[in-house]
Amino acid sequence: MTIRFNCPNCDALIAFDEKYCGKRARCFTCGERFLIPSKDKEKAKKIKLPEERVEPLPGFYRMVFVDSWKLFMSLDNITGLVFIFVAVCFKFFTANWNTSMHITGESLSFDIYIPLGHALNIATWGLLFFYYMEIINSTAFDIENLPEIVLGGFYGMIWRIAKSLYVFFVILLVVELPYLILLLITKKTGTEFPVLSHILMLGGLFLFPMAILTAAIGREITMLRPDYLLVPIFRASRPYLVTAMLLGAAGVIQMHTSHYTGQSRSEAVIDLLPNLVAQFFALFAMRSIGLFYRHYNCVFPW
Fold it and tell me: What is the four-CA torsion angle of 87, 90, 96, 101, rounded to 10 degrees?
């Protein structure tokens, strides 16, 4: 049975299966948090956000390196873990499904390249990024388990893929803007700045976790301001370094992964393993980003 109700904030129509009644959820229209009611058309109860603190909440490192392992020990997280596993396997086996179509005419023949594998790979990354943003958001607001996967049917899934990819590229553009400007100057003047170029590129990647956090919590691209990104890093540099290192480890491992190319079963398993390890680190990184906000939201200027 499906439970239908309206968002307590924006009045948008929301529907959940009855098995989720009593659980926490969030409106995809306005971001309002609420408890899913037990009856159809019943009013949903808002969830109060944590009170502002003047001091950081202790226990950040324990939550990241010790308590995060509990994600793999709770049956409530099976759906989320299976979703990540299936997504990784799907993009591993389909990334090379690119083909071409040969068209022959009376006076002309040509090949049309069909990048099906690339399209499926990008779409899968969009789904993973969407879910990781949900993990950041739920972890930031004291939810210990992995969030429920609510895609909203085929069209809802397409919308979430498109939106998450858009957010990802906007974030990447914002944090790497100084680097891109330098590249433009280099191209126009013909003068190279190799050291400065590497510093700006790595600096942008260092800001990436904070930019993801700001977009996941703030839900507004306009919040990607320099002060919003830099102030929390300067005020809580050590714990932020932990989040950046975890996400960096996931990125480095992912850069050294490969896709299925028709190799034997044993070779495919060996090649698939680094892809899973990369997402293992990514899962810890996203949780650490959410925990950074939970424990250090007193240092955020917004």
Answer: -110
Number of domains in the chain: 2
pLDDT for the residue numbered 219 = 72
- Judge if 181 and 38 occupy the same domain: no
User: Residue 37: which domain range?
Assistant: 1-48
In sequence order, the 6+-apart residues with CB closer than 8 A to the CB of 29 are: 7, 10, 12
Task: Please check whether residues 102 and 18 belong to one and the same domain.
Answer: no
Ranges of the chain whose pLDDT falls below 70: 1, 19, 28, 48-54, 105-107, 110
The model's pTM is 0.81
Neighbours of 104 (CB within 10 A): 7
- 26, 39, 138, 150 from 3: Cα distances, Å: 15, 6, 22, 14
CB within 8 Å of 109: residues ≥ 6 apart: 102, 103
